Amino acid sequence: MYKSICTLAVIIISAFSTLAQSGSYYNGTQNLQGYRLKTKLHDIVAHKTISWNYGDLPSFYQQTDRDLYYENDSSLLDIYSENPVGLDPYNYYYQNNSLISGASTEGLGWNREHIYSQSFFNSYYPMYSDLHFILPTDARVNQRRSNYPYAKVGNAAFTSLNGTKVGPSATANYTNTVTEPIDEFKGDIARMLMYVAVRYENLLPFFEYANVRNPIDSLSEKSFKDWYIPLLLSWHQQDPVSQKEMERNNAVYAIQGNRNPFIDHPEWVQSIWGNLPNDNTVPDAPFQVVMQEKGKQFITIEWPYVQGGNIAGYEVLLNGNFVGSTQGLSYTFDQLTENTTYDITVRSYSTSYVKSALAPAISATTTTTDTFAGDLLISKLITGSAYNKAIEISNKTGHPVDLRHYYLNMRQENSTSGALYWSSNKIQLEGTLAHGRKLVIINPHAQLACFAVDSADIVSNGLPMNFDGTLAIDLLHDNTTIDRIGDASVRANFATGRSLYRKGSVTLPTAVYDSTEWNTYPLNYCDGLGNLPEEPTMISITAKESLNIYPNPVAAGSYIYVEGKSLNHVKEALLQSIDGRVLERYKSPFRKSCSIQLPDQLVPGIYILRIDGQGYKLLVK
Prior knowledge:
By secondary structure, the protein is α+β, with helices and mostly antiparallel strands. The protein is built from nine helices and 33 strands. The strands form nine sheets. Strands 1-22-21-15-14-25-26 form a seven-stranded mixed sheet, with no helix packed on it. Strands 17, 18, 19, 23 and 24 form a five-stranded antiparallel sheet that branches. The longest helix has 20 residues, at about 1-20.
């Protein structure tokens, strides 16, 4: 009887889930609101996008930004010169090759305008070429806009021919210079900025948020500074989503692989930012913070789920200093010193950013030696014909690595003087790389016979992914080079027309290139690139007792059902990431039911459900 009830329940739930979610880009957002909805949207919008080169954008604009709505003459649709109720003061056409870098007056040419200014993210990829918030605009007005935030202007110091203004702010709680677009495009700009807040939610703490002109803050959940949120809501409501925006969203999706959710679902703006939490209740502090694992340069801690106080996340402190935050239940401190004792503590914060008391501190001492690498290293460089270019980065550190601290960069050569310099357009990595796993970055134009573009972790045509095997490539941790291929002092033929595979005996990255560490293979060779199909050995899947877990695969936020003997005696179930991090704990989960509900924020991938220590592989789709 027990089995039939559970079986019937899962069939019914799965049927409704399939009907509700099949074919939907926004799977898993049902019934979510507030910051939980925003984080789920981030997981969707940031997953498997294509980062094109900044130089690719002008050709793409012919698909995304033609005037088919006002004059309907297929001219460049420019928010700084478009007159929605009459003739435009001037027009640009793609075939006239009027792309310029700057201008002294309007109407001389156009260039690319970052609606969220590139100075706030240091012109790093993937932000640097994200079509969702980079528009073709008149070069002169673009210059006058500078990197001022968009807001209401008081007495304009400059007004473009279509009415775009630059001048002192008339928006409450901000008095510096701002730029005000015409009413026709205020909602467009607001929704582009909200897209930035969602797509780059995890990277916001790495942006230049201290810049007074930057309307985005370091707070990943809320994202915007307090003075800016009422303006965004007002512009979004006053200028609803237009047909132009919907068609542009579709075009960018076809090119880049992701969407602006606030064009598809305008109601989500209000759900996320319309009623921001304002609860001064102090949340409960974490308890039983314990050390999970340690090595010579890292310490991993974990703690149980904390129930009270509408918790949004946790802050971690090392020797009393704030180090970072997480929405999970574990954290790894890395780049530590060997044989050194550290005091570690954690506190929770609520959706209103009220912080709890500090959990009791624990002391942990790094080991004197270990068998792990001190940092990530470049393990393969594929230099093939045309755009057949890929880089593999391996994690042999013994712990999961937060990739937001890592960048790829490439040496450049001045076309006039021949002098070498480092590019300012680095690729900033994203996500977490588990121990024993490999990250593959590939050029979107690649056509390798042994590796599909869709199989890569990052697809980028950013400058560092246009290497030719003669100019050095760096992997950096923050601003420090940790691994280098090639000689930074000279253009040299170290990998032209061939692939380099690091020898298995090499476990440490090095900032000085050593050709003896590498094996050489022919042009376009890429066998063994990326992760092997089998699971990493650090996660053991045992079979002491056969339990039936279904459905599997399953959608995030759905219920999974478990069949087996003596389930009511199970003390604890753990949901773990593939690298062993505890994502959710379930105490005595089967006393009253045969089901467990998965967290809504899970991204597609492989997880481990550990039931009283027994592990089962779970695939989240």
